[in-house]
Amino acid sequence: MSATAPTSTLYLSAPAMAGLIGRKGVGHCIAGIAACIREDFLRWPQFEKSARVASHSPDGVIELMPIADAATYTFKYVNGHPRNTQRGLPTVMAFGVLADVATGVPLLLSELTYTTALRTAAMSAVAASALARPDSRVMALIGNGAQSEFQALAFQRLVGITTLRLFDTDPAATAKLVANLDGTGLQLTVCASVAEAVRGADIVTTLTADKTRATILAPAMVESGMHLNAVGGDCPGKTELHADLLRQASVFVEYAPQTRLEGDIQQLPADFAVTELWQVLAGHEPGRTHAAQVTVFDSVGFALEDFSALRYMRDAAVELDMGEHMALIPALPDPKNLFGALRQSAASASQGAAAPGLKGAPG
Amino acid sequence: MSATAPTSTLYLSAPAMAGLIGRKGVGHCIAGIAACIREDFLRWPQFEKSARVASHSPDGVIELMPIADAATYTFKYVNGHPRNTQRGLPTVMAFGVLADVATGVPLLLSELTYTTALRTAAMSAVAASALARPDSRVMALIGNGAQSEFQALAFQRLVGITTLRLFDTDPAATAKLVANLDGTGLQLTVCASVAEAVRGADIVTTLTADKTRATILAPAMVESGMHLNAVGGDCPGKTELHADLLRQASVFVEYAPQTRLEGDIQQLPADFAVTELWQVLAGHEPGRTHAAQVTVFDSVGFALEDFSALRYMRDAAVELDMGEHMALIPALPDPKNLFGALRQSAASASQGAAAPGLKGAPG
Questions:
Q1: Of A109, A273, B164, B359, whose CB has the highest number of CB atoms within 10 Å?
Q2: A40, A202, A234, A306: which is the annotated catalytic residue?
Q3: Could you read off the pLDDT of A156-173 as tens digits, one per residue?
Q4: What is the homologous superfamily of the domain A9-114+305-360 according to CATH?
Q5: Does residue B265 have a pLDDT over 90?
Q6: Quick check: A357 and B355 CB within 8 A?
Q7: pLDDT digits (tens, 9 = 90+) for A296-350
Q8: What are the beta bridge partners of residue A80?
Q9: Which residues does chain A have within 8 Å of residue B7's beta carbon, measured at their own beta carbons?
Q10: Window B:9-68, CB contacts with A under 8 Å
C-alpha cells in the first residue's frame, strides 16, 4: 500500500467484511478479537477514555464512541432502534474509523455491524473466563435475536460451554438460532420460560432488546455459583436484572462512569460497589473468590472493545489483502494550497480525468 | 435511488466533491451553505446541541462534532495538526455523516475537508452580515493559509468586500493567495506587518493556525467601528486576540458553552458577557448598535454549521446525480438473522459472486 496517497483510507464494506470473516472463520475472529481485548484491557491506563456521546430520540439512540492511546484513535458510530426490524432494518447498525493520532489521517473506515456482534461476544467470553466457575458447561441464552449465535460460539470456543438452554418470547427467534447452530456440536434445549431456561445453568446470558425497564431475571431464579452475563441492558431506561439481584451479587463492569449511566446498575445509587474488569484481568482485584458466589458482568459495550476489534480487522485485511482504498481525504500537491487543489481537481473532473471511485487494493 | 437497499449510503469522495463544487462554483456553494446556516440558526432551539468531543495529543487534536434535530443527525470528524504541512498533509482534514434519526441509517458519508473550508467562510460571512458596518468594503486577512481564499470569496459575494489587505509571516502563503485570487476582481494589497494590514480596514479576519496563545491583534491596532472575524483561535490553548481587546468590544459567539472552552474568550472569566449569534439573527438581541462599536465574532466552528453544509451537499449531489452508493451497512434479508446473513454473504464472497465495491449512482 506504499504507492497510495498518504491520505488514502482503507475501506472494509459490509460485504467485504463478510468475506473476510468467512475466510478467517467466525470462531477464529471472535478468538482473535478476544485476544486483542485482553491485551488492550491490560494496558487500560494508557487510554484516554470517556463515556460515549448519545443522541436519544423516541425511536432509538445514535451514539459515538471515541477512544485513543498515544498512537491510535478510533471511534464507532452505532444506533439502537428496537422497532427497526418492523421496517426490515437491523436493530443495531455500526461503522467505525481507526486514525493516526500523530497526523489525524483516517487510516481505516470499516463496517462494524457484523464486527460489533463479534466483539460483544468476545468481550462477554473474556469476562466469563475470569468470572464464571471454571467447570461451567451449561449456558442459558435469554433472548435469541441477532447477537445470540455469536454469544453461543464465543462461549463454546473460549469458555468451554457444551450445552445451551434457549428462551425467547418469539419462538421464531429461537427456531432461527437452533437452525443457525446446526452442526456446531452444541447441545440445544428449547425452554418454555425464562425460569426453565435458567434452572441448572452455570452461566445465564441475557440479550433482550426492548428499550424499557424490564425484569428478565428475578432473584428467585438465580442459583448459587451462577455467572450472569447481562448484555441487553445497555442504555438509560433499558435494564434486564432486578435490583435486588444486583445487590446480592458481585458486579463487574467495563468502564464504571459509563455503566452507571447505561447498565443495569443505573437502578442503584452512584456509590454502589462495582469492580472494573480490567482490574481483575490485571490481577489488581479478585474476580470470583468461591464457587457459590454469584457474579454479574453488567455489560454495556465500551469504546475500547471497538478499538480492539478495529485493529484486529485492519491487521486481518492487510494480511489477506482485502478491502479497497478510498479518497475520503483529498491528496493535495501542496497542503497549504487547498483552494488550488480544489480548482485543479474540479477541472480534472469536468474533463472526465478524475477517478472519484474507489481503487481496489493493489494485488 | 429507490432501487438501492434501505441501508445503502450515498458516498461523496474528495474528488467527487471537488467535481460537485466545480460544477456549482465555489461562490455559489458558499452562498448556498450560508443560506442553509441562516435557516438552521433561526430554528436553533430545535437542535440537540453539545460541545464537541476533543482528543488532544502533543501534535494536534481529533474531534467529533455531533448534532441532531427531530429528523436528521449529523456528525463531523475533524483534526487539527499544525505541523502536518511539514509531512505533506493538510493541517485540517474532515469527513462527516448525515443519518436518519428515525432508524439510525447513515444516509450520506461525505468528505468535509473542502466542505469545512466552504462552511467556515459561509459562517463568517453570515456573522459579518449581521455585525459589520453595512458600508464595509476593506478587509484585512491575517494568515493567508488554506482557509484564506474561501474567506475572501465569501466576503466578496455576501458582504460586499472589494479590497483585501494581506499579511502572513510566510510570504509564500501570501503569494499563493494572490495568485489564487487572480481574476476575481478583488483589489489586493500585500502588507509588511499585521498593523499595516489592519490600518484602515473595516473588517479584520484572523486565520492563524499555531496551537499557541498568540496575540495577533492588540488593542492599539483596532479602530472604532471595526468588525473582527476571529477564526483561528479555536481550541484550548490557541488564541489570537489580546484579552483587553475582547473586554473593550461586543463579543458574539456560535454556542457559548463550546466557545468558552475553545474561543478567544477562554482567556476571560466564565461570566464574561457574550451574545449567541442566533439570537441576533432571530431579532432577539441587538447586533451592532452604532457605527463606532467594535464587534468580534469569536468563531470556533460549531456542529450546526456542518449539519447545514451536509444537507446542502446531499441536496446538491441528488440534484446533479453525483456520488456513489456504498454498502457500509449490510442489507439483511431477515434483519433478525444477522448470523445467517453473514454466513450467506461470506459464502457469496468466496464464490466470487459478491460485489464488495461501490456501485455507481444510477444514471
A1: B164
A2: A234
A3: 999 999 999 999 999 999
A4: ornithine cyclodeaminase, domain 1 (3.30.1780.10)
A5: yes
A6: no
A7: 999 999 999 999 999 999 999 999 999 999 999 999 999 889 999 999 998 887 7
A8: A61
A9: 89-90, 93
A10: 11, 13-16, 18-19, 21-23, 26, 48, 50, 53, 55, 57, 59-60, 62, 64, 66, 68
* Contact (Cβ atoms closer than 8 angstroms) between residue B5 and residue B331: yes
Q: Are A50 and B53 in contact (CB < 8 Å)? A: yes
One of 2.60.40.420, 3.40.630.30, 3.40.50.720, 1.10.287.40 is the CATH number of B133-300, namely 3.40.50.720
- Residue range(s) occupied by CATH 3.40.50.720 in chain B: 133-300
Cβ within 8 Å, pair B22-A356: no
Q: In the annotation, is A334 catalytic?
A: no
> Does the CB of A355 have a partner CB in chain B at under 8 Å?
yes
DSSP state of A82: G
Q: What is the pLDDT of residue A200?
A: 96
Residue pair B87/A103 in contact by the 8 Å Cβ criterion: yes
Residue A263: CA count within 13 A, CB half-sphere: 29
B102:A59 CB<8 A: yes
Contact A84, A116 (CB under 8 A): no
Q: Which residues contact A163 (CB under 8 A, 6 or more apart)?
A: A137, A138, A139, A186, A187, A188, A189
Interval B8-66: pLDDT, tens: 999 999 999 999 999 999 999 999 999 999 999 999 999 998 878 999 999 999 999 99
